[in-house]
Please model this.
Amino acid sequence: MQPCFYILSETEAPLQKINIPTAFDRIGEQWSPHIAARVNGQEVRLAKIEGAFEWHRHDGVEEAFFVVKGAFTMRFRASDKEWDVEMGEGDFITVPAGVEHMPVAEQECWIMLIENAGTVNTGEHVSERTKTDLPDLGA
Model:
């Protein structure tokens, strides 16, 4: 199913509708965020995850996670402490700016992320998993 576009007038941006569960069918690679929408300088991103990501942080940027399907563990560490937060379908968590974290999913999990436009998925750490040119599901 392709997104629907509605033009309000020649001077206004088009309204865009996207079906979130169907949009996940268009995501072929795990740990590869896709942009579902842009709102007030934020990007709503969708990603399929499985296995462990990598420890990272986003200096000066908060990041929100919503579990659409499945479950994962958000691991945190600060100073000499480590702790986990179990996330299931319908759960939402905001990771504060600068807090080191690592998502881990034992089985495939579908997540929605909300973060500042242009935020790099690996934060301050650049690796082979770093994604900078994210596919746009609304295009």
Remarks:
- The chain has one domain: 14-116.
- The chain has a mean pLDDT of 90.
